Amino acid sequence: MLRRPAIVILVAVSAVPTIAGLAAALWFGLDAGAFSRVLGTPGVGLSIASSIWSGSIATVISLMLAHLAVGLAVSGGWRTRLNALTLPLLAMPHLAVGIGLALLLAPSGVLMRLLSPWATGFELPPDWLTVQDPAALSLIAGLVLKETCFLIMALMAALAQVPSARLQLQAQTLGYGPLKSWLTAVAPLLQQQIRLPLAAVLVFGISNVELAIPLGPGLPPTFSVLLWRWFTDANPLIHSQAYAGTLLLLLATAATVVAAMTVSNLARYVLRSSVQGGRRHSDDRFAQGVIKATLILLWTVGVLAIVAIVLRSVSGAWRFPALLPAGDWLSRWNDVLPTAGNTAAITVALATATALVGLALVLPAAEQCRHDARTRATVGAWLFLPLLVPQMTFLFGVQVLLVRMNIDGTFVAVLWSHLLFALPYLWGLLAPARAAIDPRYRQVAATLGAPPSRAWLTVTLPLLARSGLLALALAFSVSIALYLPTLFAGAGRFATAATEAAAAAGSGNLRLASVHALLLAVLPLIAFAGAYASGSWLFRHRQGVPR
Amino acid sequence: MCLRRHAAHLIAGCFAAVLLAAGGAAAEQDNWPAVVAEARGQTVYFNAWGGDLTINRYLQWAADRLREDHGVELRHVKVTDIAEAVARVRAERAAGRDDNGSIDLLWINGENFAALQSAGLLHGPWVSEVPNASYVDWEGNPTTLIDGTIATDGFELPWGTAALTLFFDKSQVSLPPTNPATLLRWIGDHPGRFSYPQPPAFLGSAFLKQLLLLLVDDSGHLQQPAGDDFGKVTEPLWAWLNQAHPHMWRRGRLFPLSGPAQRDLLAVGELDWMLSYNPSEASRAIRNGDLHDGIGAMHFAGGALANSHFIAIPYNSSATAGARVVANFLLSPEAQARKADEQHWGDPSVLDIDKLDTDDQQAFSALQIGTATPPAAKRYLPEPHPSWTTALEQAWLERYVR
Amino acid sequence: MKPLQLDKVVLSVDGAALFEPLSFSVLPGTVTSLLGPSGSGKSSLLAYLCGILPPAITASGAIRIGDENLGRLPTEKRRLGLLFQDPLLFPHLDVAGNLLFGLSRGGSRAERRRRVDEALASVGLGGFADRDPATLSGGQQARVALLRVLLAEPRALLLDEPFSSLDDDNRERVRKLVFDEAHRRELPTLLVTHDEQDVVAAGGAVINLSGPNADKKE
Description:
Chain B is α/β, with parallel strands linked by helices. Chain B has 14 helices and eleven strands.
C-alpha cells in the first residue's frame, strides 16, 4: 500500500482528521465533573433511551424491508423498477425528509387537510401528538423511509459480489419458493457484505440530529439533539457538558452496535435451524403484494413530503383546514428567492468543490488498486470510518483542532469536512467501476503506440465517464445534505441550505425551514437527473460503453 | 418600598452614565473620520439571530447600503441562538485566539451580555465614539443603559426596545384576559389552544418572568440575585403552570421551540395565541401574508416585561473600526426609521425623536401603524436579575421534562 | 522489414519455469505458429513480447527486431501489433475513431480520414466509418481490429488466438485476410493457437510449447 501514494493520500485525507478528532474529543471530553452534570440533567436517561430505541427499531425495520424488497425484486424481475423507486428518496437529504414529514403528518399537516373537514369533521386541527411524539414513532418512520432506501442500494451493490442467481436457483430446485430461497440461500451472504453500511445506519439512527430535530420527541429530545442544544449554549459549564456528552453518545452507540452484532449472530443461528427444519412453502404472491404496497407507500409519503414542503414554502397564513395556502403564491416566491439565492450559491459551490476534489482524490487511488480487490476493500473500510462514529463526537474534536490551527471557518476546512463524508460513497461507486474495465483496452492502446497518460485520458476516462458522472452527482448530494460538518468546521460562517434549514427547524420555524428544505430536496434531484441525462447523451450512439 | 428604592437607584445610575457618555463624547467623536477611513475595506461578521426572514432582509439592506456608502462588507452570520456566538468567543479565548476572532459584532442582551462582560470578553467602552449614539433616548428609556440590572458601561449600543406582547386570534378570544387569573380561566375553557415557547427559548423564559412579576407580592425583590428563597418566591408561578399545562396545546407535553414556531402554529390554526417582544410583530406578519387578519394584541394590565436589545463587539474582533461604522449606520435616523417601519421590520426605535432634525422626524411620523399593534403598554416592568432567569429555566426543566 | 528474434526466453511463475529456454526467429512475411496446452505460457509469451506481462510472472531472455533490443522499451515504443481473441474495439469511439486511434502520426485531418476510409473500403467495410462498434457483427469487428493494428504500422504481428471467437465462415475469411496482409506487408508474424487449421493455413514454422510445468497446469 505504501508504494501507492494516491491510496495513502486518499486514506490519510479521511482517516487523519477522523482519528485526530476522536482523540481530541477524548482529550477534551473526559471530565468527571461534566459527566456527573450530564447525568444530573433532567430527563437525560429518557433522552439516551429514546435515541437508542429509535435508532435500533428503525434499523431493524429498514433491514427487514430492504432484504424483502431486494429479494422479491430480483426474483420477481422488477429490479430496475426498485432502483428507480429508491433513488429519488435516497437522493433526498435527511433534513428535507424530516421537515417534509413534519409538515405532512402534523395535525394541521397536509394529510389531515386532505381529509378535513369532509371525512373527519375537524374545523380546527385535533390536539394530537402525531409528530414529535414521546415514543419517537414519527422519528422512526422518518428513519425507516431513508434507511430502507440506503440499505436497498447497499444490498444491490453487494449482489455483484455474490453468485445470487445460481444460489437461489439451487434452493428453488430443492423445492423452496423464490422468496424463501432468497432469504435462506442469498440473504445471509449479502448480510455479510453489508455489515459496514448496516453499522453506519445504526450509528446514524442513534446519533443523528437531521431527522431528530424536526421529528424527534420534545420533552426530552433525543440525546443528540440535547447535545446539539448544549453545544450552542452560552454557559461554559454546559459547553463542557456537551463535550462529555459526546463521549457518552459514543459509548451508547458502540454498545448498541456490539449488541446488534450479537443479535444478528443469533438471528443467523435461528435462520439456519429454520432451514434445517426443511419446511417449504412456495407461494410468494402475498409477500410480493405486501412489499410492493409498502414500497409504494414509502415512495408516496416521500412525494407527499415534498408537496408539503412546496406548499409550506409558499404559504404564510394557512389556516386549517384549507388544502391550498391563501394569497398570491408568486409574490411569496419573490419573497423567498433572494434569500434562497445566496444560500443556494454557497451550497452549490461547496458541493461542486466537494465532488470535484473528491473525484480527484479517488480516481488515482482507484487506478492504483484496480487489480487488487483486497486493497480496495481495505481502503473502503478505512474511508467508512467517519460514518461509523457519531458525527458530533469526532467533529467537535475536529473543531477544537481547527480553532487551534486557526483555520476554522475557512472554505478549505468546510470542504475537507465534507470530503470525509463524500469519499466513502465515491469510492464505493468508482473503485469497482474502475476495476471492472477490461485491462486489455489499455494494453491495446499501448501496443497501438499510446503512452500511459494518453491511454488513460482517451480510453480509461471515457469508459469511466458514466460512473464518474454518477459519482459526481452522489458526492454533490452528500455535500448538500451535510449539516453538522458545515456547522462545526464552518464556524457558523457558511450558510448552506442544510444549516439554514436546520437552524430554522431547530427553532421550530417550519415555514422558514421549508424554504431551505425545498432547496435541499431539489438540488440533489437536479444533480442526478443531470448526471443521467449527460451520460446518456454523451454515449447516445455507443451501446458498448459500460453503465 | 423596595420597588421605589430600586427605581431611585436605577435612575441615579442612568444619569451617571449619561453624564459620562456626554463628557467623553466630543473628544472621541473627533476621531470618527479616522475610524471611517480605517473601516473601508473591512469585512464585519455580524452574529445575529437569523430565524426571521424579515429581519434577515433588513440586514441585507443594511449590508448593501454599507457596501455602497462606506466600503464595509457586512456579513450576517445567522445563529439559532446568540448563545452560540457567546460560546464561540469563549472557545476562542480558551484556545488563545486573542485577535482575528471569528466574530466582529453581536446582537445581544441580558444574560449573554452579562456573561461576556463579566469575563472581560467585550471590546470597549466604545459607544460614546459613535456619532449617532447622541440621538438615543438615554434619559427617557432606562433600559438603554441598564441591561437586565447590569449597567452597560458603554460596552454595548442599544439597537431597539421591546415589551412583551400577547397576540391572539380575535375570532376565538372575545375578551382578552389581561391578568394571570383570567388567562388561566381562558386556557381551561379552550383546551389545546394556548402554549408558550419552551424555556430556555428566550420568549418562553420571558413568559415565565412576566408571570412571576405579576404573581409575586414584591416584584422589587426580583431585582436582587436569586437566593435560597427561590423556591418560596416562585411557588405561585409553578402553581399557575401546573394548573394550565394539562389544558394547553399537546397537554403541556410538547411546546413550540421559539417565538416564530409559535407564530407558525398560529398561522396554520393550531394555536390561538402567540408571544412577542415586538408590539408590531403581528401587524407586520399580516402585511407580509404570514398571518391572517383578525389578530388582536394585549399587554398584561399589571405591566409589560420590557428590555432593550443591543449590539456589542467581541474583544478579539479584527474589524473594530468596521464594526463601529456598522453600529453607527444601524443607529442612523434612516436605518432606525426603516427598522420601525412595519413593512420592513417594525421594531420600535431607541432614538429620541425630539433630538432629530425635522426631515428625520417626518420620516418617523409618516410610518403607518398596523391594526394588530397595541397601544404602548401602560407600565413597563424591568427585567429581573439575570440569576432569576437561569434559575427559572433550570427549575422549569426539572419540573416538566419527564 | 526485419525478423523478430527470441533468444533464450524463459517465463517463470514463483521461480518455476513454464517452458525450456526458447530461441527462434520469425522471418519477414512468414507466420510462425506457437502451439501448446492452456497454461503452457504461450499467451504470456506474447504479453512479454509486448511488455504487458502481469507482475506475477517473471521473464528473462532477449527479444529483438533485427538488431534492436526491445526489452528495455515501454510497450508504446515497441511497435508490435497485437490482436487479442476479442476484437476489443473501444466502445466509446465509432469505427473511424478506433482506426484513427491506431493510425500512425502525421497528415492533415482530412488526409487521415481519407486513409481510414480507404482502409475500410479495402476490407469491404466502406461506409462503416460512423458506426457504433457495438452494432457490428463479430467478423466485421475482427476486420476493424486488424485494420486498427495495421494502420499503426507495426514491425511485427502478434496474434493471440484471434480467430477462435469467430464462426466457421468468418474464421476462414478473416484468417485469409490477416495472413494476406502479413505477407503483403512483409511482417514477421507469431500466431498463438489451438486450432490445427490455423497452423495449416499459416504454413510456417511450428513451435510446440510443453515445458516442465505443462502437465501440472493442465
